[in-house]
Amino acid sequence: MRQDATTHRKATKQAESSRGVAIVASSRDNGLRPSEWLCVTSGARTIRERLMKRQFLLVSAALSLAVLCALWFAPPAQARGNATGSARNPARVAWKFAASGDSRNCGDVVMPAIARGVKKNGALFYWHLGDFRKMISADEDIQHLPAYRSLPLSISEYQQIAWTDFINSQISPFGTLPVYLSIGNHEMVPPKTRAQFLTQFSHWLDAPNLHAQRLRDDPADRKPKTYYHWSKAGVDFISLDNATRDQFNEKQLAWFEKALRSDSADRRIRTIVVGMHEALPDSIAENHSMNQSPTGIESGRRVYADLLRARDQGHKYVYVLASHPHYFLDGVFNTDYWRQHGGVLPGWIVGTAGAERYALPEEATSARAAKTNVYGFLLGTVSPGGEIRFTFQRVKESDIPAPVAQRYTSDFVHWCFAENSAAR
């Protein structure tokens, strides 16, 4: 051990001596004293180490910036199928929403069960696609309320209470769950008007998020309208008004196309869902849709073409929901017309919230799915990437809450399920 230590000390001294000799030699070559040359070489070494450290930091910063730029400006991912989508920072978890329309006739019986099913499935909101009450004559459910069974209402008395009944019997069961309302043609049965609709349902049409969105779109737009939109977790929901045959008018079209341009330019928006009462023209349900007026055909085709551009050029997922016919259809735009005029958008009809059920059209064989003599709602599950999977959730007679059956009688509840149909 002592010998090893002695040997190590000798080697160290020899190395130091050699280094000293080298310093002396170099100092002579440069005309410097050894102490001066040692100072110069030590300073150079320090400068070189600092430069290397700074270079390392600059390279690290450049790499970090490159990664951030790649994430920010990356081209949108595209998914072909029913639609094309793109996203940055997608939602981290899937979430759900629900929709259906046409709750006249037996809606006071069916809608409480729909509300229960919507909440049970974890949907974040419910979207009613129009036709709350019959309005041209008293709904059968109102006629079977205890107060009116023996003393029927006159038409004017009925029309005065119909919308209040809708709020109390159909919206209230949702509790604190947000409800969005689209206007249907039965909301425009005289003497009702759009102005009355806006007044009666201002609580929902001017909800805080809708009010805020309207002002973001136009700071001067302070009054609610019968058409509007709202965004949630990368999905823009657009509710349109085609309740009368003069729609869509130019004012609504200009608003809609502005909203679409904004969505197409916004990388945070991955998906567009458009809802309305009547289906856009040239669908499987064209005999009960916007095809019933020249304005409806022209303006509806324009909206459809706008949505095709949002899908193909804006790289968004696009889905179209409607009610009006009282049945369920999945694939309503799978027609020769749209296959030859730009392509088939994924579309649904879900007029299944309590109205008298209709027979399916002959063309329903072209749909992905078609059902009548059913009640229920459409449940949309939004994936983290923005694609939406829709499933029909059927409501059965056994789903009607006991207090509702007691209020209207079990016989009337059974009538709603067995007899409220023109498709027998």
Short description:
The protein has helices spanning 2-30, 34-73, 107-120, 140-143, 155-171, 194-200, 202-205, 208-217, 250-265, 294-312, 336-340, 402-408, 410-418, and strands at 95-100, 123-128, 179-181, 228-232, 235-239, 271-275, 317-322, 328-330, 347-350, 369-371, 375-382, 388-395. With 424 residues, it is α/β, with parallel strands linked by helices. The protein has a 7-stranded mixed β-sheet.
User: How far do the termini sit from each other?
Assistant: 108 Å
Strand segment count: 12
Task: Please report the number of helical segments.
Answer: 13
| Radius of gyration, taken over Cα atoms and rounded to an integer in Å | 35 Å
User: What share of the residues lie within helices?
Assistant: 40-55%
Largest sheet: 7 strands, mixed
How much is the average pLDDT? 86
Shape estimate? globular
Q: What ranges have pLDDT less than 50 throughout 5 or more consecutive residues? A: 1-13, 15-32, 34-41, 65-90
Please state roughly what percent of the residues sit in beta strands, choosing from under 5%, 5-15%, 15-25%, 25-35%, 35-45% or over 45%. 5-15%
- Which sequence of SSEs, written as H and E, runs from N to C? HHEHEHHEHHHEEHEHEEHEEEEHH
**How would you classify the helix and strand content by structural class?**
alpha/beta
**Strand arrangement in the largest pleated sheet:** 4-5-6-7-9-8-10
Describe the secondary structure blueprint for this structure.
Elements: H1 2-30, H2 34-73, E1 95-100, H3 107-120, E2 123-128, H4 140-143, H5 155-171, E3 179-181, H6 194-200, H7 202-205, H8 208-217, E4 228-232, E5 235-239, H9 250-265, E6 271-275, H10 294-312, E7 317-322, E8 328-330, H11 336-340, E9 347-350, E10 369-371, E11 375-382, E12 388-395, H12 402-408, H13 410-418
Parallel strand pairs: 1-2, 2-3, 5-6, 6-7, 7-9
Antiparallel strand pairs: 1-11, 4-5, 8-9, 8-10, 11-12
Helix pairs in contact: 1-2, 3-5, 9-10
